[in-house]
Design goal:
By secondary structure, this protein is α/β, with parallel strands linked by helices. The protein has a single domain, classed as Alpha-Beta Barrel (TIM Barrel), CATH 3.20.20.140. The chain has 15 helices and nine strands. Strands 1, 2, 3, 4, 5, 6, 7, 8 and 9 form a nine-stranded parallel sheet that branches.
């Protein structure tokens, strides 16, 4: 792109310079999941996406089978995708025009109460794991359950995650559990895909105290693109509202992108409707709507119009999560 193009199309210029890192994909975690959804990220120019390999809604064995399926699918397509072991792999994928992929796990039921599973998951490509998916488990409290703190098992998990280089993730978890984890962790932590409660009073969103505590560890808050957590809107203007609020609170260097996107080709909506214990109807009634990866260019345009610097924008698009991974991943 020429300098004239940069002047005429500033959003495209900034977007093209950025490493686009989406810290959480929201499609279903199953061994038969339709992975063609990953084309949405490739088409948007993303360099990295974290794919959720399992969550507490399903048995821990589902996580192992899903990882086996996704890893094989990706490795069968080496021209398009790369399993990222480290941040150098992500830079290599970006240089090659490929999409780098690592995994996250939503809830510690996947450990089957066995601390040794953390190293195994890390070796299989899992780079972040959160404590509980909405409901309480043996590690700690979920955001739609009794507000318990970390259990003794949860505390041992934090220590082991710090040891192996897995990012401690506080999304979906109860307030006390997150505050305990952020106090205990010796490494920076993340709210991988959570929005400020001050803008949308949903139990899945997080308080200013949680945002400040995460930033104080050196962590990053990934802004979620689901309409119910944005204020019943998936318009980029509202997404930028949440970015701007968080950046004003703790600095743009602690903000990232985590769209939690699903294109509807799986049965995620059926799972939500049929599992009211994990998704209470008073908070999840109606259809889930998602802001797609191809709207990120609009997000950049809005941020520029709101006087975000190009440096802050490239950090939010991916540089901040990339720097966090450099600090935490072994």
């Amino acid at each position: 792109m020429t300098m004239t193009d940069a002047i005429d199309h500033p959003a495209s210029f900034v977007y093209d310079q950025a490493l686009i890192w989406d810290n959480h994909a929201g499609f279903e975690s199953r061994p038969d999941v339709d992975l063609s959804q990953l084309n949405h990220w490739r088409a948007s120019g993303a360099s990295f996406v974290s794919v959720n390999a399992g969550y507490d809604v399903r048995p821990w064995t589902n996580t192992i089978h899903t990882l086996a399926h996704v890893r094989r699918w990706i490795m069968a397509r080496p021209n398009d995708y790369l399993l990222a072991r480290n941040t150098a792999d992500i830079l290599q994928a970006r240089s090659d025009g490929r999409l780098a992929i690592a995994f996250d796990i939503e809830g510690m039921e996947a450990l089957d109460e066995n601390i040794d599973m953390i190293q195994l998951y890390y070796d299989l490509g899992v780079r972040q794991m959160l404590f509980a998916y909405n409901r309480n488990n043996s590690a700690g409290g979920g955001c739609h359950d009794e507000d318990t703190g970390l259990t003794p098992f949860g505390r041992s998990v934090v220590e082991e995650m710090n040891r192996v280089g897995m990012l401690v993730d506080c999304s979906h978890s109860a307030y006390r559990t997150t505050m305990d984890a952020m106090e205990l962790s010796e490494s920076p932590v993340t709210f991988s895909h959570s929005n400020p409660k001050a803008l949308c009073d949903h139990p899945r969103n997080i308080t200013d105290d949680q945002i400040r505590s995460c930033a104080a560890t050196g962590g990053v808050i990934g802004i979620n693109g689901i309409g119910k957590f944005l204020g019943d809107s998936i318009e980029p203007e509202h997404y930028v509202d949440h970015i701007a609020y968080t950046a004003d609170l703790v600095g743009a260097g602690h903000v990232g992108v985590a769209l939690d996107y699903s294109d509807g080709s799986d049965d995620l909506q059926d799972a939500i409707t049929g599992q009211s214990n994990f998704w209470p109807p008073q908070w999840y009634s109606g259809k889930m709507e998602f802001m797609a990866p191809n709207r990120l260019i609009d997000v950049v345009d809005i941020m520029l119009r709101r006087n975000f610097s190009s440096e802050d924008i490239t950090g939010i698009l991916g540089g901040n999560f990339f720097a966090l991974a450099q600090r935490v991943w072994v």
